[in-house]
């Protein structure tokens, strides 16, 4: 398994829609493993393939944060939201492509998601709480959308300028 570099906003690849995945091959399973390792290393609770510059509909997540609780690594190919609750919930979100920036985002509190798993089997599950927020945030990535796109333009521009500065500093380092 390999830890892959994570793209930092602004980057045109983070604004583009990803392509559907065809057959779930060993190459696809290796990509999912790399993404999980990259996510745990960051550390983060979710990562979408475009964040490592791979324009495919694949996300990984593990929202188990309690000390001592077993991890639940998930990899989803071609995920789609097939139902969303009217009830909304608000979480302070962050993103591995927008380091150290956090903001509250309203999203449906529960969603049903259908996806293809690493064995090529179609799965369906209802997610709630942090898992619901995380899976919606990651599916947004597959559609070229970032959590800051939900914020007011002024706040979004402020965060984007901070990220441009961070990228300049990293390029010099
Ligand atoms: Zn993100």
Automatic annotation (TrEMBL):
Keyword Hydrolase annotated: yes
InterPro entries per the UniProt record, alphabetical: Peptide_deformylase, Peptide_deformylase_sf
Source domain of life: Bacteria
Binding site for Fe cation: 95, 137, 141
Keyword list, A-Z: Hydrolase, Iron, Metal-binding, Protein biosynthesis
Pfam families: Pep_deformylase
Active site: 138
Cofactor(s) of this protein: Fe(2+)
Enzyme nomenclature, EC number: 3.5.1.88
GO molecular function, one term: peptide deformylase activity
GO process annotations (BP): translation
Cofactor remark: Binds 1 Fe(2+) ion.
TM ranges: none
Enzyme class, spelled out: hydrolase
Catalytic activity: N-terminal N-formyl-L-methionyl-[peptide] + H2O = N-terminal L-methionyl-[peptide] + formate
HAMAP family associated with the record: Pep_deformylase
The family this protein is said to belong to: Belongs to the polypeptide deformylase family.
Protein name: Peptide deformylase
Biological source species: Actibacterium lipolyticum
Encoding gene (name): def
